[in-house]
């Protein structure tokens, strides 16, 4: 599954991903020791990671990847590449979200309001 995301720099956003069986597409629950990693880069092949979110508190079959204002405050407004992977406790890896575009836009009020 590919999913384009647009967000404003320095704002809050939650990305919700459901884990599904690759063949049946039915929801599948996480197991103890699983973790979900979202990686953001300027380009897919770039060695430099702009942002990485790791979630280890997993229950049920959905994961919420939270973005706080500080997560994107220093990112330049532009299009980035991202993916989301599930690392199973046993070491196998599933792609939850195929490489997709994360667009960060410039906000007008830049978190400097008291």
List key phrases describing it.
mainly beta; Coagulation Factor XIII, Chain A, domain 1; 4% helix; globular
SSE layout and pairing:
Layout: E1 5-8, E2 13-18, E3 35-41, E4 51-55, E5 62-67, H1 69-72, E6 78-87, E7 93-105
Parallel strand pairs: 1-7
Antiparallel strand pairs: 2-5, 3-4, 3-6, 6-7
Descriptive report:
This protein has 114 residues and is mostly beta strands. It has one domain (5-105): Distorted Sandwich (Coagulation Factor XIII, Chain A, domain 1), CATH 2.70.50.30. It is built from 1 helix and 7 strands, in the order E-E-E-E-E-H-E-E. The protein has one helix at 69-72; strands at 5-8, 13-18, 35-41, 51-55, 62-67, 78-87, 93-105. The strands form 2 sheets. A 5-stranded mixed beta sheet has the order 1-7-6-3-4, with no helix packed on it. A two-stranded antiparallel sheet has the order 2-5. A hairpin with a 5-residue loop joins strand 6 (78-87) and strand 7 (93-105). The protein is globular. It starts with a strand and ends in a 9-residue tail after the last strand. The relative contact order is 0.33.
CATH architecture label: Distorted Sandwich
Number of strands: 7
Which shape, going by the Cα principal axes? globular
Q: What's the CATH H-level homologous superfamily? A: Coagulation Factor XIII, subunit A, domain 1
- The neighbouring-strand order within the major sheet is 1-7-6-3-4
| Cα radius of gyration in angstroms | 15 Å
Report the span from N to C terminus.
Answer: 40 Å
Query: What is the averaged pLDDT score?
Result: 92
Identify low-pLDDT runs. none
**N-to-C order of helices and strands:** EEEEEHEE
Structural class: mainly beta
Helix content: under 10%
- CATH fold naming: Coagulation Factor XIII, Chain A, domain 1
State the name of the first-level CATH class: Mainly Beta
Number of DSSP helical runs:
1
Strand fraction:
35-45%
Quick one: biggest sheet?
5 strands, mixed
Number of domains: 1
